[in-house]
Amino acid sequence: TFTVAVSSGDGSLATGSVTVSDGTTTLGNCSLTTGGTCTGATAALSGGTRTIVARYLGDALRDAMDPRAKR
Asked: For 22-71, what is each residue's pLDDT tens digit?
């Protein structure tokens, strides 16, 4: 299970959806609630070091955001 929270710089709540990945493998997708959070389920992960990334896919007011992107 994973839980993601998305907030905006202006304090408004984001809508839309999020994709959670382990490297190039998508673990799951979830739609944000009115509180700006979402929860999803994924299969158990094997042991070891992982790079888990939550990518916000955007909404009508906000662009998608990939935390791996350099700004």
From this structure: 888 899 999 999 888 999 888 878 888 888 889 999 888 888 887 664 44
Whether 56 and 6 have beta carbons less than 8 Å apart is answered as: yes
User: In whole angstroms, how far apart are CA 47 and each of 24, 59, 67?
Assistant: 17, 34, 24
Beta strands in 1-71 (DSSP E): 2-5, 17-22, 25-31, 37-40, 52-56
The CA-atom distances, in angstroms, between 13 and each of 20, 29, 42, 43, 44 are 19, 18, 25, 29, 30
Q: What pTM, to 2 d.p., does this model score?
A: 0.79
Q: Tell me how far the alpha carbon of residue 31 is from its chain's centroid.
A: 9
State pLDDT tens for residues 42-54: 887 888 888 888 9
